[in-house]
Amino acid sequence: MDTEKINVLVVEPEKKPYPKEISSELASLQKEVGGYIQAVYPYEEPVAIICDEEAKLKGSQLNRVLRDEDGHIYDAVAGTFLIVGLGEEDFTSLTPEHMKQFKEKFDTPEMFMRVNGKLIVLPMEEEKPKAKKPSVLQKLNDMKGMESSTGVKKPHVKEER
């Protein structure tokens, strides 16, 4: 049996979202989210969020929040979820425009803290690679290179024997 492949956006906790081609079969969707699927339709666009319906009950890591048009949080999605397109009767590939739109929407991973009974959500900063400090030997070599390129020599100290 030939199954249809669809292009979806995968959103994992603490990671940037990425496109992936998967089978549109139920088993494939369940495998991607790690459990029984639940479809949520929070947007006007013809897309759905496919998530594990028991993720919160299982204690899965919170992933991203859903906000209303005023920016207020109304729910948090736990575990890995997918953004899929909606067809007449089934899930379909995201259009390139929707892929770009929702990749940008969920691009910044979020971290969660509970403080005084309230859920605090903060964007996770991308770790920038630390600049490697030059060694003393590299600094000396750089200084020698500067001397030869400028033609100026530093005063030479005569060693005594």
Question: What do you see in this structure?
Answer:
By secondary structure, this protein is an alpha+beta fold. 20% of the residues lie in helices and 34% in strands. It is built from 3 helices and 10 strands. The chain has helices spanning 26-33, 96-105, 136-150; strands at 5-11, 18-23, 37-40, 47-52, 62-67, 73-78, 81-86, 91-92, 110-115, 118-123. The strands form 3 sheets. Strands 1, 2, 3, 4, 7 and 8 form a 6-stranded antiparallel beta sheet that branches.
Secondary structure layout plus pairing:
Elements lengths: L4 E7 L6 E6 L2 H8 L3 E4 L6 E6 L9 E6 L5 E6 L2 E6 L4 E2 L3 H10 L4 E6 L2 E6 L12 H15 L11
Antiparallel strand pairs: 1-2, 1-7, 3-4, 4-7, 5-6, 7-8, 9-10
The count of DSSP E runs of length 2 or more, i.e. the number of strands, is 10
Overall form: elongated
Helix content estimate: 10-25%
Strand content: 25-35%
Q: Whole-number radius of gyration?
A: 26 Å
Number of helices: 3
Count of discrete domains: 1
Q: Mean of residue pLDDT?
A: 88
Quick summary:
Helix content is 20%, strand content 34%. It has 161 residues and is of the alpha+beta class.
Highlighted features:
two-stranded antiparallel sheet; six-stranded antiparallel beta sheet; 161 residues; alpha+beta; single chain; 20% helix; 3 helices
